[in-house]
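Dear V.,

Thank you for sending over the compound details. I've combined the ligand you provided, zinc ion, with the protein sequence from our construct and run the structure prediction for the complex. I'm sharing the raw inputs here so there's no ambiguity about protonation or stereochemistry in the SMILES, which I know was a concern on your side last time.
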Amino acid sequence: MGNEGIMTSIIQVDLLVHSAQVCTVPDRGRPQRGADLGDLGLIPNGAVAIRDGRIVALGKTADLQTRVTAAKEIDATGKVITPGFVDPHTHLPWVGERANEFEMRVAGASYMEIMAAGGGIMSTVRAVRAASVDDLVEANLPRLDRMLAHGTTTVEMKTGYGLTTADELKQLEAIHQLDQAHSMDIAATFLGAHAIPAEYKGQTETYVDLVVEEMLPAAAEWSQGNRPLFCDVFCEAGVFDVAQSRRILTKARELGFQLKIHADEFEGLGGTKLACELGAVSADHLVTTPAEDIAALGKGETIAVALPGTPFGLGHRDYTPAPEILAAGGALALATDFNPGTCWCESMQFIIALATRYLQLTPAQALAAATINAAYAIGQGDRAGSLAIGRPADLLILNLPDYRHLGYRFGTNLVEVVVKGGRVVGDER
Ligand SMILES: [Zn+2]
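Below is the predicted structure of the protein with zinc ion bound, written out as structure tokens.
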């Protein structure tokens, strides 16, 4: 009888990870904006307890060890625990590769020159059009495995390599099947306006008509019973201008899509300001963003998603002006832009290494941008990118003595253990 009070207060859990520097990256109900970026909610010598795939206790190791009994324990002494990375911008799923173009580019050809020569995105479009849903699933499962091994536990994927209604729906179906087949959580985006397909060369308006009148309604119909979709547009000189982007995104919004945009990768056309005006969830790339568009990010809800792997992949010198965006009060997230043309990179760790140098983010800022803010950039701030009681247990054990080694060290995988939905990745496979 005397022990009853103590006995009932002990929680039985599946997994206790303890004795680590825990970066909880707290969710305050909105992304970390401006000067607030970099709030890690550190718990020195902390522990995380997991039951039924969710976090059920979080705190000091000494405290949790008196409150829980665990079926399995991991002693993470001298290591760091963080939320799983969220990668809010990739171009999965695709088939094929473009090493020949990489070689051309290294020899001096520009991205636009390669595209004008029939390469670039259209090369992958031809490969994806020739592929089946099964081909797409088979080619992309190993990529998800590598991303997960490098710490990404939630990922966004896009269409945009089909560029016909049937082939865009095929990519959506592949995304759906990948989500079913893999433990990674996947957010899906329709990007029918990724490029102007070769058969519409010189007829951009006609292609925009097809996107607006046929593809978007078909994607919206497909999403009934499947998943909510984002709609994205490649707003760039020589691709879709601001008026065309506005037309596509406005129609998408009417159909119930949440919005994203590719803007300011090469030229600042006003796409970021358009995204803020339309209430887009994110505006992505943002390398050549004009000052007034940066000001709009500070006032609006749209999250700036920086993709530093892309300028690096292209051998460019200019990166997202992160200090200016933060000074304006904007919210910044990081993503890989994982794609076969400009950035074949599965690793958010490498993106953090680039961001700490070329975006001048501190390791704390980069980590928050790669977790909680990245989760908000795909509308999942309430479930991903943060360690808190009740959330899905997606976490990493990094073989580092302090979180500041993240970004400082690069080129090898610093993740020792990935826990996805409460399960240690690798244990059941
Ligand atoms: Zn992209």
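A first observation: The two ends are 45 Å apart (CA to CA).

Warm regards,
I. M.
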